[in-house]
Design brief:
Elements: E1 12-15, H1 31-42, E2 46-50, E3 68-71, E4 76-79, E5 82-86, H2 91-102, E6 107-111, E7 116-118, H3 123-132, E8 151-155, H4 162-165, E9 171-177, E10 180-185, H5 190-200, E11 208-212, H6 218-221, E12 226-229, H7 235-240, E13 243-244, H8 252-259
Parallel strand pairs: 1-2, 1-11, 2-3, 11-12, 12-13
Antiparallel strand pairs: 3-4, 4-5, 6-7, 6-8, 8-10, 9-10
């Protein structure tokens, strides 16, 4: 891993939510991360949330210093002036997933722009919800046939998702948890959303940072000038990133921003057993 150097101006920073801004242990944003976001804004850096969460599951994130928001892994993008972009999943693919759920092949969470629900409960779902500190009601998933579904959480373990990919035509799957995959329209994802946001604000990609920890952050790393993996990130994320910072619970975002010269201050050091 190279030493921390950065010669380009920093005009934008994109942040994943779970495991990056939000601690899996406390389900809150560390105080040092809040300070880093504020210092970035004071320095003229536009901060963007880039998460797979829907808008009604980000209440625990202080958006005071955020410029705009990439939600549903990029299928719903908005700033304080309104919606910039949104796209729903193909109706035929939703019908396929509903049918597979009715067959008992897996459980699934269905998300619209205003509400969400699951098909049932199982160990994979319970583990995922506990990790993210969220919950959803269980409802009849047939209603999804008449709704605009923006994202699905399909509760299948690694190596078991062929049943979905082989029977749908317009779905893209990405995994950041062993418990489920996010599913959204083919061609979507954080990469296109970040690129769209940079164009909207006329910011060169090489002037942007991206922070993440999971598989759904990897493509985002490919469209910015500098990518930073959290110390608690998945191995493939760390391998792909330009830099690896400390974990979310040990001031990873603050330390990375300081080391890159994006904000003033000193890194917060922790002992080996911290």
């Amino acid at each position: 891993m190279p030493s921390w150097t950065h010669t380009q101006p920093i005009e934008a920073a994109f942040f994943d939510a779970d495991g990056t801004l939000l601690s899996f242990k406390t389900h809150t944003i560390p105080e040092s991360t809040k300070r880093a976001l504020h210092e970035l804004k004071e320095a003229g850096v536009k901060c963007f949330l880039a998460t797979g969460r829907p808008p009604y599951q980000v209440d625990m994130i202080d958006i005071t210093d955020m410029e705009a928001f990439i939600l549903f892994n990029g299928q719903f993008i908005l700033n304080r002036d309104g919606v910039i972009y949104q796209q729903a999943i193909d109706k035929e693919d939703i019908a396929t997933v509903v049918d597979q759920v009715h067959q008992g092949l897996y459980n699934c969470a269905f998300m619209t722009g205003t509400h969400c629900y699951t098909s049932g409960r199982d160990e994979l779902l319970e583990n995922a919800f506990a990790a993210a500190n969220i919950d959803m009601p269980t409802e009849d998933v047939s209603q999804a046939l008449d709704e605009d579904i923006i994202q699905l959480n399909i509760f299948l373990p690694p190596g078991k998702t062929d049943i979905v990919t082989k029977n749908t035509k317009h779905l893209k799957l990405t995994r950041w948890s062993p418990n489920f995959v996010d599913a959204f329209p083919l061609g979507g994802g954080k990469a296109r959303a970040v690129a769209r946001m940079l164009r909207h604000y006329d910011i060169p990609p090489e002037h942007a940072l991206a922070f993440g920890d999971g598989g759904n952050d990897l493509e985002m790393f490919g469209v910015v000038g500098t990518s930073i993996a959290m110390g608690n990130g998945n191995p493939e994320v760390k391998e792909f990133a330009d830099y690896v910072t400390d974990d979310v619970d040990h001031d990873g975002i603050w330390n990375a921003c300081v080391r890159l010269g994006a904000i003033p201050g000193e890194p917060i050091e922790h002992g080996e057993d911290a």
